[in-house]
Design a protein that fits this description.
Layout (H helix, E strand, L loop, with lengths): L1 H5 L6 H7 L9 E6 L11 H7 L4 E7 L29 E4 L12 H4 L4 E5 L10 H15 L2 E5 L36 H14 L6 E4 L27 H10 L19 E4 L4 H9 L6 E8 L11 E8 L7 H15 L19 H6 L3 H7 L4 H6 L2 H10 L8
Parallel strand pairs: 1-2, 1-4, 2-3, 4-5, 5-6
Antiparallel strand pairs: 7-9, 8-9
Length: about 400
């Protein structure tokens, strides 16, 4: 099956828009929400295409977290205009949707002025924490308020569309890393998420005119390396599909004083802290029997962020069966094991995170304080994850209504 998939070239929404000669955009004043990972089969990005497309007037470009060129680190404010990211048309307005305040995350009516159609083309990685889908949600909400039409150019979910994993988001814990009530690993494409968000806007009494230009020849069981598409880093610490595979669980470490491997060449695959012994970490985690993964003792020295310039002990995650691997359960188990190995040194991250000071980061990432309280109470990862099963089953049922791929 895998070999058959690799023989089949998937087309993205952008590829299909180009093949259709930009018919949906002709005669329209267009705003584009995009970044450098949004490329077609010939490695040309969406901004360049729309700037040069005949009959299309590109009015404004909106860049998400990390900037139009994906150069900014996490939590780093991006300026309104980046000189080397300006498209061919000098009159195009550039706006950042990740500035220095929470208000900057949403496009304003002034920024959307003079636009007939808002096009969204962003490469997601299949995780609630990854903020591009939150940016899309905020754009849909802004479009609904202004009766602005939206076209989403769809792209494959890199880690596949079959598995759903993790707890739901509870009311009161919404943030940029948890903008909607979906599991941590949602198993949807950006286009399908847009349809889900549209459905909930309608339920709230708002309407948005949404069209999704779907991928061609993608099915839910396909991983990104089976699509024939090139991998372009959607953010500085997402260098490969291996990173995306472990990210839904390993991102939980951002809510602690453990290093999640930022500042190394293997972010999210490496993790640990200066006070941990690699052999003890690996032995503890390998004894858990987590499916599809092996933990190798590792020492690493981050070059920036947590523990920069200091040798850390910990593990590297090696995914040996990605279909069996459960990243969110694995990340939970890693967090618990490393906390238990050095409880006097472990701490939750308490500084402001994604513009929110309360709740703290780990609660925003899990979507409630339930998991943190269970960890503090000594619960096992198995017991905590068992409570997710009802949420996962409910979401599997819900997404049947909006799934667009077999």
């Amino acid at each position: 099956m895998a070999e058959r998939r690799r023989d089949r070239r998937v087309t993205t929404g952008l590829d299909r828009l180009v093949a259709q000669d930009f018919d949906q955009l002709r005669g329209r004043r267009v705003g584009l929400v995009t970044h450098s990972a949004a490329i077609d089969a010939r490695y040309r990005d969406a901004a360049g295409h729309l700037a040069a497309a005949p009959g299309v007037r590109l009015v404004a470009i909106f860049g998400p977290e990390h900037g139009l060129q994906g150069q900014a680190q996490d939590l780093e404010a991006v300026l309104e205009a980046v000189p080397d990211s300006r498209p061919a048309a000098p009159s195009v307005r550039l706006h950042s949707l990740y500035g220095a305040t929470a208000a900057s995350l949403r496009p304003t009516p002034e920024q959307l002025a003079g636009i007939d159609l808002l096009v969204v083309d962003l490469q997601d990685v299949g995780c609630r924490h990854y903020t591009f889908q939150a940016t899309m949600k905020y754009c849909l909400e802004a479009a609904a308020d202004l009766a602005l039409e939206v076209l989403v150019l769809d792209r494959p979910n890199p880690i596949g569309g079959l598995a759903v994993e993790g707890p739901r988001l509870q009311p009161g814990y919404e943030s940029f890393v948890g903008a909607h009530d979906i599991p941590i690993r949602h198993g949807l494409t950006m286009g399908e998420l847009a349809l889900l968000y549209q459905e909930d806007l309608v339920a709230a009494g708002k309407t948005v005119a949404l069209e999704v230009l779907p991928c061609g020849d993608w099915d839910r069981g396909m991983w990104f390396d089976e699509t024939g598409l090139p991998w372009v880093m959607p953010s500085p610490n997402m260098p490969s599909l291996d990173t995306a595979t472990v990210y839904p669980g390993q991102c939980l470490l951002e809510g602690t004083n453990l290093s999640e491997g930022r500042g190394t060449t293997r972010p999210f695959e490496l993790c640990g802290a200066p006070w941990l012994e690699p052999e003890a970490c690996a032995a503890t985690l390998n004894a858990t029997g987590l499916p599809g993964v092996t933990f190798r003792p590792a020492r690493f020295r981050p070059t920036f962020q947590k523990h920069a310039g200091v040798d850390c002990g910990g593990v590297q995650l090696h995914v040996v069966d990605r279909d069996a691997f459960r990243p969110v359960r694995t990340g939970l188990a890693v967090l618990i094991a490393m906390r238990r190995l050095a409880p006097e040194r472990f701490a939750w991250r308490t500084e402001t995170y994604e513009f929110v000071s309360d709740p703290i980061a780990i609660d925003l990432l899990f979507g409630s304080d339930r998991e943190r309280r269970a960890i503090e109470g000594g619960s096992s990862w198995e017991a905590i994850a068992a409570a997710w099963e009802a949420d996962e089953a409910t979401f599997q049922e819900r997404r049947l209504r909006i799934k667009r791929y077999g």
